[in-house]
Amino acid sequence: MVTLTEAEESGENVPKGGGTLVYRQRLATRLTHWLWAISLFFMLLSGLQIFMARPDLYIGQQSGFGFDNTVLSIGARQVGGEMRGVTSLFGASFDTTGWLGLVPQGDGLARKAFPGWLTIPGYRDLATGRIVHFFFAWLLVATLFVWLLASAFNGHLRELWPSGRDLKRLPRDVADHLRLRFVHDGRYNVLQKLSYAGVLFVALPLMILTGLTMSPGVVAKFPILLDVFGGRQTARTIHFAVMLALLLFFVVHILMVVLAGPINELRSIVTGWYRTSAEKRP
């Protein structure tokens, strides 16, 4: 991490203003951050388009009427003489009319798993959804590879990996977050390190591997993937669950940016410069 004084001495352009500025986010980190955001956005909406072709999730190698392994099902059926959207989760059914299963379309309701604004394209088009999904999936893979190489060379990986000392501070850090007390010292706190490491080293690789496991061509060459994930249907369920986890991470991430100071946080991920406070981390 470069300080304002060091940057000025090296002749770099730095933002003007009071307070201490540090160069927190390197160019590779900033570029890959925004490429991930774009990729995951298009992958989410195109993934839901693909999911609509079979809006059910199972555990195991196979699925169908002869198996009782459904964990999630989104559809529409007659309830009391009226068509209703129904979502079933682990055997429990919920009326989701207007949201899932039976959704607004034009002047009425259509039997679709998701409304048009939640999918790419907004109408039923599995072929285009797959094209969009796979394009941004491979962009995500390439971006992750570039980030790993750049971060290994510039030391960013060490900044993200939680140490034993970090883990000892975990209870204090959780308490500080619950009190909305944030320390702006330019370093990652332990909750940030754990969440970012979880996304970059667990969630994204798991999303990629389960996605590959759903490909007949890939598992024909690497059948071990079916054993690792317990079958193609289980891999699909894990893929969907990781998507929900990433969506939750996004919501919490945006909330933390707003609470910690959106101007400072956005400047950091756009320009690299982060304004620190006088308060030091204990």
TrEMBL record:
Residues 25-272 form the Cytochrome b561 bacterial/Ni-hydrogenase domain. One of its GO terms (molecular function) is electron transfer activity. Pfam families: Ni_hydr_CYTB (PF01292). The keyword tRNA processing does not apply. The keyword Ribosomal protein does not apply. The chain crosses the membrane at residues 34-53, 131-153, 196-219, 240-263. It comes from the Bacteria. Gene3D superfamilies: Transmembrane di-heme cytochromes, Chain C. GO terms for biological process: respiratory electron transport chain. One of its GO terms (cellular component) is plasma membrane. It is found in: Cell membrane. InterPro entries: Cyt_b561_bac/Ni-Hgenase, Di-haem_cyt_TM, Hydrogenase_cytochrome. Keywords: Cell membrane, Membrane, Transmembrane, Transmembrane helix. It is a multi-pass membrane protein. This is Cytochrome b/b6 domain-containing protein. It comes from Jiella avicenniae. The lineage of its organism: Bacteria, Pseudomonadati, Pseudomonadota, Alphaproteobacteria, Hyphomicrobiales.
